[in-house]
Amino acid sequence: MLHGRTDETAMIERLLSGAREGASAALVIRGEAGIGKTALLDAAAARAGGLPVLRGAGIESEHELPYAGLSLLLGRTAERLDRLPEGQARALAAALGTGPAGEGDPFLVGLAVLTLLAEAGPLLCLVDDAQWLDHASAAALLFAARRLEAEGVVMLLTVREPHAPGFQAAGLAELRLGGLADESAQALLAERAGELSAREREEVLVESAGNPLALLELSAARRQSGPYSVGIVPVQSRIQQGFAERVAALPEATRTLMLVASADDTGDAAAVLAAAGLLGAGPADLEPAERAELLTASGARLAFGHPLIRSAVYQRAPLARRMAAHRALADVLDGDRSVWHLAAATPEPDEDVAAALAATAERARDRGGYAAVAAAYTRAAELTPDPAVRARRRVAAARAATDAGQFEKATELLRLTGFEERVHAAKLRAVLAESRDDAQDAYRILLHETDPAAPSDSVVLLRDAVAAAWRNNDFECVEMMGGFAGTLKGGAPVATLATAALAANRIDRGEVADGLAALRALLADPPGEAADVRDRLLFARMRLITGDIAGAYGEVSWLERDAREHGALGTLPAVQVILARCQLFTGAHRDARLTAEDGLRIAADTGQTRPALELRAVLAELAAIEGDEERCRELSAEALERGLAPGSVHAAAALSLLDLGLGRYEPAFDRLAAVLAGSRPMGMLSALPLMVEAAVRLGRPADAAGPAATYERWARESGQAWAEGVSLRNRALLTDDPDDYALAVHHEAFPLDRARAELLYGERLRRERRMSEARTWLRTAAEAFERLGAPPWAERARRELRATGESRAVRAHAPDLAERLTAQELQAVRLAAQGLSNREIGARLFLSPRTVGYHLYNAFPKLGVASRGELAGLGL
């Protein structure tokens, strides 16, 4: 019986009941050592009924070994790789070391885990001491946990707090365990230590502070040793001290065996006994530890009675004895585990051990364990006698730490790196600076390391610096660095890149011809399919600036499909930023929302702030179109506060679009005018028509003339028909000539732009008392705004219609088939219509096949179909 945990066990019961009905859930249970987290997992396992139970734990000594935690958790379940899509099967096999090595991706491994759990479900998955999971296992499990939906899987993870390393689990439900209430603590003490006197029980209750394990250990100590002094000592330390005293009472050979077990990371009884045998302990020496319930043997595995027992044994042992235990384990184990134990037993620099660790690091890279690569190279550097080799290994460690998101560790490693690796170190420090959203610091770091006497190195650094400054809209630095690059041998491509960036920024100020010419010069030699994704994205952004929406759309659509097929989640958010913006341009608002929301989820998984801000800006523009002021402001706030362009520019445009739709013309204009007047207006081009309309509505045509002229030059030079249509609308607003409005509504345009032109034309005709014609255009505009989901604009058109004397209501927009579905249902249906199986759809959408089936099951009746074969004819 668990005392004082009625609410917590009831919550878990509800989750288990849901799993039996096909619902999934993930819960992180946090609390201090001994508070009852493990007991709650035991209770969950006891209540699982017929559900299979997978159970694993993070182990401190395994913290640096890639996928060690995942391997322990999955056990024989990992043998079902044949049930996984080929790419996932390869990734998981490589991660667990059961297949050929390949370039690992923790997120693709996470998708494989999700699929594997779904195939085995319904089930209960328990992970204790998650704070000690290796980085790769934690990333994979959290990725899977965030995508649980309809697999019938319940995942419970416990985390000891306060503790380092921490365990960040954003997006998952959390339960924090506090101390037991007095009544429950007294009941537990009466049950387990009833022989203590009332005074002794009261002292134990006070000292334990409601911590169940502390209560039991302190009462056991009282029974064995009598009164003790109460000091101000943390609960965890008191518990560990109690365990240490119990261990100290055991025979020396038993303590030796327990020390080897605490240093081991496999739980393999045969390996522990073999290593202990080298130190004079045998199987018979296990019995005293088992009698004391400190260490137990179950089949071929050894397990400590509580994680704190392992910590107490290892941390209280002298260094020389710990090193001896590690050397014994190195002698009996194979592969990477042997190398790590050998390193733990090596107190001074030793190139042979360092080289073995470096080889271990590269094997870890093949398995996708970037944190393990960093750990191995860090320890290898510490054991490396040669300073130059040590510096190279520290840079390799920093690079891997950066890939793993361990930015503080990477920064510290680079601080220790000498001049020999300055170029690689500078590039990494710049990446770290941008990860902190400090692009300015990034290019300053790169620029600082340039040296005219080393032109080839300087060109490499300047290329990254120009790109970082462009991303930060710092065109003064772009110009300076481009000029510097032009003086260096081999620096012409960097100078050309800088010229294009400067030209792109001047387009917003009206210098259109030169700007477009510079961008087209670069676009004439596009990167191929094998090029770096960042280069291809840069070119897609250039296409947007030149107005080639179709070209950019095609490029990023290909990149998105490729990233999904290969499970490359790290690149997806940046791709989805441009994809969502293209969809927004072309009136595919539902698709834009779906893309942006999916990108935000993946950006959260992969820790990418800048793409997240840009995706939020897309959603803010959609909220503005819908007239949802609260959501628009919420989505825009962070980008505006951080001032990170282009997200901040698009966020300002979203708020001005909102104001324009709601008839608040002055703030709409003033906000954008402030951005345009700044030194970094890039991204403003698409907002210039908003300024034109706001200024005209305010009766300030002079303020509209400049933005209108700039946009007209850009539309003409771009040669894009849709842009010419917007320019014609701007001209009509300035001239107020019905003929100009007529030209605008009959010109090619994207849906929202066309509807706005129709509204303006209808309003102009009504003012001329041409009521019949006005009704035609106003009705057309109102219906278009309804289809586009733009209530404020639709209401404005209806209001104008009523002013013409129109009594008939605007025909309500009948939701099309796609609007009947949720976002994920629509994604699943579209892929199913292409003939993909549930497994293939799950791989594309990063969902389990069961969840895909759940979405299709819900979608079919909404669409009025009974089979997958009917989907292709729906045109979704």
Automatic annotation (TrEMBL):
<keyword id="KW-0067">ATP-binding</keyword>
<dbReference type="GO" id="GO:0004016">
    <property type="term" value="F:adenylate cyclase activity"/>
</dbReference>
<dbReference type="GO" id="GO:0005524">
    <property type="term" value="F:ATP binding"/>
</dbReference>
<protein>
    <submittedName>
        <fullName>DNA-binding CsgD family transcriptional regulator</fullName>
    </submittedName>
</protein>
<dbReference type="GO" id="GO:0003677">
    <property type="term" value="F:DNA binding"/>
</dbReference>
<dbReference type="GO" id="GO:0005737">
    <property type="term" value="C:cytoplasm"/>
</dbReference>
<dbReference type="InterPro" id="IPR000792">
    <property type="entry name" value="Tscrpt_reg_LuxR_C"/>
</dbReference>
<dbReference type="Pfam" id="PF13191">
    <property type="entry name" value="AAA_16"/>
</dbReference>
<dbReference type="Pfam" id="PF00196">
    <property type="entry name" value="GerE"/>
</dbReference>
<dbReference type="InterPro" id="IPR027417">
    <property type="entry name" value="P-loop_NTPase"/>
</dbReference>
<dbReference type="GO" id="GO:0006355">
    <property type="term" value="P:regulation of DNA-templated transcription"/>
</dbReference>
<dbReference type="InterPro" id="IPR041664">
    <property type="entry name" value="AAA_16"/>
</dbReference>
<keyword id="KW-0547">Nucleotide-binding</keyword>
<keyword id="KW-0238">DNA-binding</keyword>
<feature type="domain" description="HTH luxR-type">
    <location>
        <begin position="814"/>
        <end position="876"/>
    </location>
</feature>
<dbReference type="InterPro" id="IPR016032">
    <property type="entry name" value="Sig_transdc_resp-reg_C-effctor"/>
</dbReference>
<dbReference type="InterPro" id="IPR036388">
    <property type="entry name" value="WH-like_DNA-bd_sf"/>
</dbReference>
